[in-house]
Amino acid sequence: MTNGTAMKPLMEIKNLTTRFYTQDGVVNAVNGISYTLDPGEILGVVGESGCGKSVHALSIMRLIQIPPGEIPAGEVFFGGRDLLKLSEREMRMVRGHEIAMVFQDPMSSLNPVYTVGFQISEALMLHKKMNRSQAKVRAIELLNLVGIPEATKRFDNYPHQFSGGMRQRAMIAMALSCEPKLLIADEPTTALDVTIQAQIINLVIRLQEELGMSVMWITHDLGIVAEMVHRINVMYAGFIIERGFVDDIYNHTLHPYTMGLLGSLPSIDEAPGTKLISIPGLPPDLIALPEGCPFFARCTYRVEQCHQERPQLENAQEAGHTVACWRWREIQGFGVA
Amino acid sequence: MNSENKVLLQVINLKKYFPVSRGLFTNRQTRYVKAVDDVSFEVFDGETLGLVGETGCGKTTVARTILQLYRPTSGNIIFDGIDLTSLAENELRKIRRRMQMIFQDPYASLNPRMTVGNIISAPLDVHTDLGGKEKQDKVQDLLRLVGLNPDFVNRYPHEFSGGQRQRIGIARALALNPDLVICDEPISSLDVSIQAQVVNLLEELQDRLGLTYIFVAHDLSMVRHISDRMVVMYLGKVMELADRNEIYLRPRHPYTRALMSAVPIPNPRKARDRQRILLKGDIPSPLNPPNGCNFNTRCPMAQAICFNTDPEYREIEPRHYVACHFA
Hints:
Chain A is of the alpha/beta class and 337 residues long. Chain A is built from 13 helices and 12 strands.
């Protein structure tokens, strides 16, 4: 939210670090990220495959399998306690109840042998201690809330009888069943068609306004988040490399990687024959992270310092806008590539 | 691109129905999925024609039927004056070298047991009688052309990233100097920054080699970027066809309008100002399309006539075709 400074944050993450031990070596998936999330805020977490955006969300939910995973450092303060220090039993009461998650592929997140209605009721009976008939009434309300037509009839359907968009709606209904304070949506529209994607985005915006929860929307598409989020974390190789309010990220882009990501998208009013600005090369190997800036190898503006020292997030001119780049002041002078 | 170019490919009243067998033991084929139902368009030499639509609209079936990977149920496909639908397999093989395809999934479309060199030279083995040395040179030229290191010939696909694999697929498609390349969602499995690399490469190759592309995709912003003209399909039919700017600035079909308004805009101010047209409901099953206009179940403008009469696909302005009663 825009007046966020006075508010007590809903979640505060400090130095979160996640690694995986594999045969090839230690994969540094998330490398010490820190940020806060305000009540009622919609946060976009943007980055490409392997940037750690999903792993960081799974770490918050403590859904990382240990081993091969490990969270060697970091704190996740939520509701006055550090989630990383809770017992598995306490954590189970946080998942679904206080923080809920919606995943990319709605088919594999639903159990094919139970009805959709049963799967929604299950959470209500567990967390809200409802009996079967109360849970059914509430589940039908929820199906209505997420815009599933003929909810009473649909309650008894199995997941295969739902279309992709309806399954994702059902997943959202399930996630909202215990009125979580935070909804984490991990690429929830990637598997859907554009017109259905537009429906789901609209639904989440509407529900956020009605229910007042916070939303974390994880995506690789800077186009999708532009119209719905308040703030954006841009991630690269397990680091947050730029963070700020949505207008600042798009209109006063500071990090060369964010510039490259935006340049890779065709603009809506581009002239015919315009070339896309692509980022050369590939993201770094997370097993052998470079010592300096993780974006060094692909950056047009790199200098020797970038190779030697890793830049930390520092404040830019606008309030709440931070960037991890040694040269952001100079680069701004060059204009957007 | 100018409209006076010669027509390279003509698709005339193309239909492709797939029979659906019912029952486990009986094999009664009583129903059909009308994957492509009466589709006509032309592709000009040297242009990029974008073919867009959502899941099940028949865009990939059109692409495969053009190459005769599926034989059409009816209709004609005229490639450079030759009707492909009347050709026998051995005659087709000769003409196939002029039409190539780039596939969606760079992981599934490259044989994991073949080296990159063998993958790229496979079309040369089939269609040419080049000697070993000439073939090797050609493969290295192709690798260089798509921006890969020519020393990679002896590596296997798993050693490459998604974007690099897609470059290998492009090199293979270009091995025989084709006239027409059908790109079936070539970038949808790639990361954003890599997508731009591949699209830039495709555009560069087109300029250099004078290729004609049919670019199949569901990502409208990228199709709009790369295409000269766009075909919008829905449930097996063409809804609208026009020049890229025309279809973007003045879409006439309500479905095209909704599609265009659903394209994410990477600019928060413009995105907030934009009026979204939200469609109700889902795409109907192609097994059971509605009567009348295919789009009537979701159309915000549907009237009585839309539920009885299939709208005629007609040219409402020069080079702008629409199938809607109210366009």
